[in-house]
Design a protein that fits this description.
- By secondary structure, the chain is an all-alpha fold.
- It has helices spanning 2-23, 32-52, 58-81, 91-115, 125-137, 142-149, 160-175, 180-192, 196-210, 216-229, 236-248, 253-265, 269-282, 290-304, 326-331, 337-358, 362-374, 378-391, 396-407, 411-416, and strands at 26-27, 86-87.
- A two-stranded antiparallel sheet has the order 1-2.
C-alpha cells in the first residue's frame, strides 16, 4: 500500500508541475512597448539635431516633439497595463493542462500494472544470489518433495501377454537381485507402466550392482525418475544424481536438461540459460525435444535479462535412433550365439527405453518389433506391435511399416497382424 501511495503522489506531483507550466503566463524577455519607448526617445534626440542643422523650423520641431511625447505616454501606459510583460494563457490551455495531468497519472499507473511487478520487493543482485544460495542449501529431500509436490501414481494396465512377461521379469529379479540386465529391463518397463516408485527402486539397485561401472546414463535415468515422482521438483537426491551423471559423461543430454531445470528452480535463470543454450547447440536439429528446449531457452534468457535471438530451426534430421538395424545384426554374424544375443539385447533395451520415455517415429517402433522377433520373443513383439498400431492409428503409412515389421520374420505375427 505504501508503494502505491508514493507512486500516486509522484505521478500527481509530476502532472501538477506540467499543468502549472501550461497555466502560468508566458513572460517575454523584452515587452513590445519597451521597444517603442526606445525608438521614441531616439526620435526626440533627432528633432534637436535636425533643428540645429536647420533641416526643420522651430514650429515644425515643436509639433514633432508634441507628437513623439504623446506616443511615449501611450507606450508607457501599455507597458504598465501589460503587468511587467506577462501574457496570460487562454481557456484552451486550462483544458489541456487537466487532460495531460489525468492522462499522465493514469498512464503511469496502468503502465506499471502491465509491465511492472506490483508487490515485488527490491532484489539487488547480491540479494538475489544470496537467495539462490539459500534455495540450493534448503532443497527438499526426495521423500518431502514427493509428499509436497508429487501426484498419486496411475499405472497403465498392460495387455495380458505383456503383464505376464512383467510378472516373470519381477520374479526373475527377485531370484537374482544382482542381475544388472534384469534390473535394467525392470526399471525401464516399470517406468513405462507408470510404476515410478518401483522403477526408482530397480534403478537404484542397478546402480548399486554396477558399482563403479555405472554410466552417466544410469544416473541420469535415476534423476529423471526422481524428478517425475516429485512432480518436476529437483530434490537433493535428484541433484546429486545429475551431478554424478555429468561427472561421468559431461555430454549426457538428459542430465544437462534437468540441470537447467534445477538452476531455474533455485532462481538462477542465467545458469539455466547457459546450460540449455549449449544443449540446444549440441542437439540434432530433428530431435523431438528441440522445440521445447528452444522455448525454455528463450524464456530463461528473458528472465535473466540476456539479449538472445533463437537460431533458425534446422531442417536436417537428427542422428539415427539407437537400436539394432539389419546391418547391426549382419555384423554380429561372426559372434557366438550368446555374444550375438547379448549385443542385440543391449540395443533392444536402449531402443525400448527411449521409446517408452520419449516416443519416436514409426521406423523406430518397426525396428523394435523386428528385433524382438529376431530374439525369439514373439509375444513381446506382438504386444509392442499392438501398442504401436494404437499410437499411429491415424497414420496409414506408419501402420504399413509397423505391420510389415511384424510380418517380416514370424509366420504367427504375419497372420495376426492382418
Amino acid at each position: 500500500m505504501m508503494f502505491w501511495a508514493i507512486a500516486a503522489t509522484l505521478a500527481l506531483v509530476s502532472s501538477g508541475l506540467i499543468a502549472a507550466a501550461l497555466l502560468r503566463g508566458r513572460k517575454h524577455a523584452v515587452p513590445h512597448a519597451a521597444y517603442d519607448l526606445d525608438v521614441y526617445r531616439v526620435q526626440l534626440k533627432d528633432v534637436d539635431k535636425d533643428l540645429a542643422r536647420g533641416v526643420i523650423t522651430p514650429a515644425e520641431a515643436e509639433r514633432v516633439r508634441t507628437e513623439v511625447s504623446r506616443r511615449i505616454l501611450s507606450a508607457d501606459s501599455q507597458l504598465r497595463q501589460a503587468g511587467a510583460g506577462v501574457t496570460q494563457p487562454g481557456g484552451g490551455a486550462s483544458v489541456l493542462a487537466v487532460v495531460l495531468a489525468v492522462a499522465l497519472t493514469a498512464g503511469a499507473l496502468a503502465g506499471y500494472l502491465a509491465l511492472g511487478a506490483p508487490g515485488y520487493q527490491d532484489m539487488p543482485r547480491g540479494a538475489r544470489l544470496a537467495a539462490s544460495d539459500a534455495a540450493r542449501a534448503n532443497r527438499l529431500p526426495q521423500a518431502e518433495a514427493v509428499a509436497r509436490f508429487g501426484t498419486p501414481e496411475a499405472p497403465i494396465t498392460p495387455g495380458e501377454d505383456f503383464a505376464q512377461l512383467i510378472e516373470q521379469l519381477r520374479a526373475a529379479v527377485e531370484k537374482r537381485p544382482d542381475d544388472v540386465r534384469g534390473l535394467a529391463l525392470l526399471a525401464r518397463n516399470e517406468a513405462g507402466l507408470g510404476n515410478t516408485s518401483a522403477a526408482i527402486d530397480a534403478q537404484t539397485r542397478l546402480i548399486a550392482a554396477l558399482g563403479d561401472q555405472a554410466a552417466g546414463g544410469n544416473y541420469a535415468f535415476l534423476a529423471d525418475l526422481l524428478i517425475t515422482a516429485a512432480g518436476g521438483y529437483v530434490s537433493k537426491e535428484a541433484e546429486a544424481a545429475l551431478r554424478t551423471a555429468l561427472s561421468k559423461d559431461p555430454a549426457q543430454r538428459e542430465a544437462r536438461y534437468y540441470l537447467g531445470i534445477y538452476y531455474d528452480q533455485v532462481d538462477r535463470p542465467d545458469a539455466a540459460f547457459r546450460t540449455w543454450e549449449q544443449l540446444l547447440r549440441d542437439s540434432p536439429p530433428g530431435a523431438i525435444w528441440v522445440q521445447q528446449l528452444r522455448d525454455m531457452t528463450a524464456g530463461a534468457a528473458d528472465r535473466a535479462g540476456i539479449r538472445y535471438t533463437l537460431p533458425p530451426l534446422g531442417a536436417s534430421p537428427g542422428p539415427a535412433s539407437p537400436g539394432p538395424s539389419a546391418a547391426d545384426v549382419q555384423a554380429a554374424g561372426d559372434m557366438t550365439d550368446a555374444d550375438r544375443q547379448q549385443m542385440i539385447r543391449g540395443m533392444v533395451d536402449g531402443l525400448m527405453g527411449r521409446l517408452a520415455e520419449q516416443g519416436g517415429p514409426p521406423e523406430d517402433w518397426a525396428r523394435l518389433i523386428s528385433s524382438l522377433v529376431i530374439l525369439g520373443e514373439a509375444e513381446r513383439a506382438a504386444a509392442i506391435r499392438d501398442e504401436a498400431l494404437s499410437i499411429f492409428q491415424d497414420d496409414p503409412e506408419a501402420l504399413k511399416k509397423i505391420r510389415a515389421a511384424a510380418q517380416s520374420n514370424d509366420p504367427q505375427s504375419r497372420e495376426t497382424a492382418q
